[in-house]
Amino acid sequence: MRRFTRDHLSAVLMLLPSLVVLAVFVYGFIGQTFYFSLTDWGRDPAQALALRPERAFVGLDNYARLFTGVLETRFRQDLVNLLFFTLFFIVGTLGLGLLLAILLDRGVKGEGFFRTVFLYPFALSFIVTGTVWRWMLQPQGGVNLLPTYVGLPQGEFTWLTSRTQIWHFDWNLIPSITALVVAAVLLVIAWNAFRQARRGRGMAFAVVGLGLVGWTLAGAPGVELLPYPERRGFNLALIGIILAAIWQMSGYTMALYLASLRGIPEELREAARVDGASGFQVYRHVVFPLLGPITLSAMIILGHISLKIFDLIWAMAGPDLATTSVPALLLYLRAFRGNQFAEGAAIAMVLLVMVATVIIPYLWSSLRGEVRR
Questions:
Q1: Where residue 38 falls among pLDDT bands split at 50, 70, 90?
Q2: What is the dihedral of CA 161, 165, 167, 173, to 10 degrees?
C-alpha cells in the first residue's frame, strides 16, 4: 500500500484551489441551472426579476413543454436546424480539409503560402466571419451580383432569408429515429467487442441494440409526442451559414490532416505500390485507415463547436430570424429578453446533454487507452 508522503500533500494543496474553483463555478452552476430548469421561474412576470423570487418546483414540466408543447414549435425547429447544421458542417469541413491536405501533401510550389491562406480564416472570430459573409450573401447584392459582370441576370437565391424547407419528416418519428441511431451505435460497439474477443460484453450490447430495433419496428409507432403531425425539415436559409462555418474551420482540419499525412512513413506507401496498388488504392487501404484517429478527434471537436454555435448565426442573421435559429439563440431570447429563466435553463440543459453525448464517450475511450499504455 502506498504511503501518503509530503510530495502527495504538496500536489493536493497545489491542485486544491483549481478543484475548488472548478467545483463551484462549473459544476456548481451546472447543478444550479438544472435546479432552476425544474421550477417555474419566469412564468410570473412579477417574480421573474424580484430580489427574492418565489419559485415553485414543477419537475420535468419545462422539458415536456419544449418537446411536446403546442406553443413550443420554434424550439423543435431550432433543434432540427441544429442537427442539420451539425451534420453538414462536420461532413463539409472534414471533406474540404482532407482535400486541401492531400493537395498540399503532393509538394506543390508555394506550399507555405497556400497553407497560410487556408489556415488564415481559422484565426478570425465567428463574429468577423459572420459579418463578412452577411455582406457577401445579401439577397440584393454580394454573390448574387456576380453573374451581372458577365452579362447574365442577377442571382435570386435568398441565402439567409429563404423560408423553403426540404427533407420533411414528422416530429412524432423522433423516438423511432433516436432509437435506431442508438441501436446502430450499440451494434457497432458489439461488433468491435466480438472482434476483440470480448464476447460477453459484445453480446450485451448486441441484445440491447437488437431490442431497440425491435421496439422501433413494433412499439415506437404507437408513441406520439404530439396529438397531430408536425412537419419539420431543412431550411435552405441555413446553407449560407453552413458555407461560412465550413470556410472558417476547413483550414483547421487541413492542418490536422496535413500533419497526419506527413507522419505516415513513406515506406508503407512504397510497399503498397510495389504490391501493385494504384494511387487511389494506396489512399483507400493505407492512408485513410491511418487517418481514422485524427478524423475521430476532428469530428468530436467540430461537433462540440457546432452544438454550441451562437455568434456566427447572430452576426449573419440575427437572433430573431426563426429559419436560421438554433437552441442557443432561443435560450438567449427566452432567458435574457423574455425573463423566462426556467425555460432558458431547460434549453441549456438540453444543449449540455447533447454536448456530453458527444464528448464523454470520446474522453472515456481516450482515458482507457492511456491507462492501458
A1: very high
A2: 110
Per residue in 145-192, pLDDT (tens digit) is 888 888 888 877 777 888 888 888 888 888 888 888 878 877 877 777
Question: For residue 292, what is its C-alpha cell?
Answer: 481514422
Task: Give the class (CATH, top level) of 76-155+238-339.
Answer: mainly alpha
**Annotated domain spans of the chain:** 76-155+238-339, 165-235
Beta strand ranges found along the chain (DSSP E): 165-170, 231-235
- Tell which wins on pLDDT, 276 or 3: 276
Between CA 80 and CA 325 the distance in angstroms is 10
pTM: 0.87
Q: Which residues contact 356 (CB under 8 A, 6 or more apart)?
A: none
78 Cα distance to chain centroid? 14
d(CA 85, CA 240): 11
Region for residue 110 given its phi and psi (left: phi exceeds 0; alpha: psi -120 to 50; beta: otherwise)? left
State mean pLDDT over 294-308. 88
- Distant-in-sequence, close-in-space partners of 369: CB < 8 Å, separation ≥ 6: none
Nine-digit cell string for 327: 437552441
C-alpha–C-alpha distance, residues 248 and 241, integer Å: 11
